[in-house]
Amino acid sequence: AVLVAALYLFSSYQQRFQIAQLTADQLARLANTDELTQLANRRRVAEAIESELLRFTRYGHSFSIILIDVDHFKAVNDRFGHSGGDKTLVALAARITDVLRHVDTLGRWGGEEFVVVLPETPFGETLHKATALCGHVAARPLVGDHAVTISCGVTSVAAGDTAVLQAVRDV
Question: Any idea which residues carry the catalytic annotation?
Fold first, then answer.
């Protein structure tokens, strides 16, 4: 009977531990994910930038950032409502993800702004990637027959850039 009781308690403890672990994983996901687009949220993107800045400082590994803004997004919301705007943002996130590497971090910075962190990517490659992104997004409609365009800003880390993270936070 003691062995059965011990097994029962162990099993019960194991179930509670699994539930707690699941809850911790869910909380981590919620803390790092934009609810609408399911991309990294602003906090997670800032962490990725900080991590890349530390790698650059320690090992000299370059990285670049693309800031993406949806052109005339207010007109999208005015014409299709916020629901249509949300669908456009979700479709845009998927479209951008199509052309990124698995090591790149794409996140929603706020509103209709997105940020891509590109590890091990020099400025010239990043500029080419941003141009390709603009073309890929504009190539065909995102939702129904509604097409949008994006504008991109590009920067790369350079020696002495301790304010890279702060500059992106202030955007």
Answer: 112
